[in-house]
Recover the amino acids of this structure.
């Protein structure tokens, strides 16, 4: 057992809590010294230490080399599934220490103001929900999934995807795919300086760009009205 | 120490191999020592385009496996001084070498040559990763077509996540008449999406097909429009502030390109 690592059996999982919580280097060193496991499923509690996407991948690799299977990372009370093989370019949100959630965004924990999504899923967005700001351009094949709002400073190119439980705001041309209210919130919106997406999704609704529409050169907002997505000038 | 460039695109068939052959030959014509490396193991073409296939004895995989020395595998071009080719293997596939092997191989070449140009295979898998691992700079080749631009964007995104310098864009197979009619993407459309510096543009030219079949790069053919454009791009690569020839009719598209190239800091 490594120094500063507390192990707890919780149900079928092994919870590893870093104690006392140190920095990234000490966490890596501690994990590398772990007793060989036998494929146990691990939930890693990093305490106040927030991880970037790359760091999540690294931890998964270290644990797997020691014979464990990392199934969840808990940080500051928030649970996040570890990042699978796919890697996002650059440490998204690294400055704020917030990793980007890979799995499907989960519904908000308590009911807030706003519409209820269909099938009772989704509770509407809460005021003060967090926002991820990312400098673009977001290139083809790049994906951002976030539990909160997403603001892109730049373009979102065709083949790129932004999926958020909150709003999606693009300070540039939205040419790719944007999905706002991904947890079922129909009150979410998508806005862009130039709205010409390959596809637009809000909650469970989908809208294609009209044929031949290259997007007007003016800021536009897409939202749900009377059960369908409408586009209005800002 | 020479520079190692990878010529890649994502999309197949846009002219990576042609560009590698012509840029390499063009740079050698300008007095540089150039090594061309074909990273398309299993589907090698650079040797054919260069007209050197009959002289291949050893290849890249032989060198990586230690079967021969690097010097033995290099094929010297008899037409242009200082131009060599390291061919790919045709009987293996892209798992035959690792990114680390490619890197050390190209580093060794960079000690002897001014420019090492690596011809990347299409795609973003092992072969592409091998080619990119070796290089410090990249040229993205694309054609003015939506599908090619989409793939180029993907590749640029992948490269931007590495430590490589920002890639340069080479637009190939441009048809000025189609651009004028609005049937082909213009420069603005492409640069708006790809948002990287333009190295140059090469016009569509039948001579390329003839050249490829003959194994004689277009830069060696005086009357070839594409060859002429490649020669200009080579000079631009070396830092010269070249302008487009008057042979091209000036129009909106080309005037903008001229301004863009002329005003570039390269």
């Amino acid at each position: 057992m490594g120094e500063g690592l507390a192990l707890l059996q919780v149900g079928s999982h092994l919870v590893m809590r870093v104690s006392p919580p140190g920095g990234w280097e000490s966490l890596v060193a501690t994990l590398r010294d772990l007793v060989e496991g036998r494929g146990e499923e691990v939930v890693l509690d990093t305490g106040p230490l927030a991880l970037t996407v790359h760091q999540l991948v690294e931890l998964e690799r270290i644990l797997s080399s020691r014979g464990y299977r990392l199934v969840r990372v808990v940080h500051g009370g928030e649970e996040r599934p570890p990042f699978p093989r796919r890697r996002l370019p650059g440490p998204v949100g690294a400055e704020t220490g917030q990793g980007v959630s890979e799995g499907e965004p989960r519904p908000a924990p308590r009911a807030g103001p706003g519409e209820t999504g269909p099938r009772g899923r989704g509770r509407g967005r809460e005021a003060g929900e967090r926002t991820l700001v990312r400098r673009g351009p977001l290139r083809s094949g790049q994906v951002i999934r976030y539990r909160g709002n997403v603001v892109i400073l730049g373009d979102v190119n065709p083949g790129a995807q932004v999926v958020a439980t909150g709003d999606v705001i693009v300070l540039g041309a939205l040419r790719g795919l944007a999905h706002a209210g991904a947890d079922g919130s129909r009150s979410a919106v998508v806005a862009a300086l130039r709205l010409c997406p390959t596809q637009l999704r809000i909650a469970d609704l989908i809208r294609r760009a009209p044929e031949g529409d290259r997007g007007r050169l003016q800021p536009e907002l897409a939202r749900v009205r009377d059960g369908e997505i409408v586009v209005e000038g800002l | 120490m020479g520079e190692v460039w990878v010529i890649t695109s994502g999309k197949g068939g846009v002219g990576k191999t042609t560009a590698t052959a012509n840029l390499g030959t063009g740079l050698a014509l300008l007095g540089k020592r150039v090594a061309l490396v074909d990273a398309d193991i299993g589907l090698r073409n650079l040797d054919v385009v260069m007209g050197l296939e009959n002289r291949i004895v050893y290849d890249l995989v032989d060198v990586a496996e230690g079967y021969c020395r690097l010097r033995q595998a290099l094929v010297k071009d008899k037409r242009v001084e200082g131009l060599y080719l390291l061919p790919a293997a045709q009987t293996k596939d892209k798992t035959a070498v690792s990114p680390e092997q490619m890197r050390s191989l190209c580093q060794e070449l960079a000690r002897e040559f001014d420019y090492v140009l690596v011809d990347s295979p299409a795609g973003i898998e092992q072969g592409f990763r091998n080619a990119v691992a070796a290089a410090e700079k990249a040229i993205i080749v694309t054609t003015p077509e939506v599908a090619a631009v989409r793939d180029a964007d993907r590749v640029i995104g992948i490269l931007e996540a590495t430590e490589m310098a920002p890639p340069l864009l080479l637009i190939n197979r441009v048809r000025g008449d189609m651009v004028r009619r609005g049937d082909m993407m213009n420069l603005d459309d492409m640069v708006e999406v790809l948002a990287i510096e333009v190295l140059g543009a090469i016009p569509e030219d039948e001579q390329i097909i003839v050249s490829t079949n003959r194994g004689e790069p277009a830069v060696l053919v005086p009357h070839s429009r594409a060859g002429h454009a490649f020669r200009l791009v080579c000079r631009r690569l070396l830092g010269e502030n070249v302008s487009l020839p008057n042979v091209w009719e000036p129009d909106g598209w080309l005037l903008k390109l001229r301004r863009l190239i002329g005003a570039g800091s390269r």
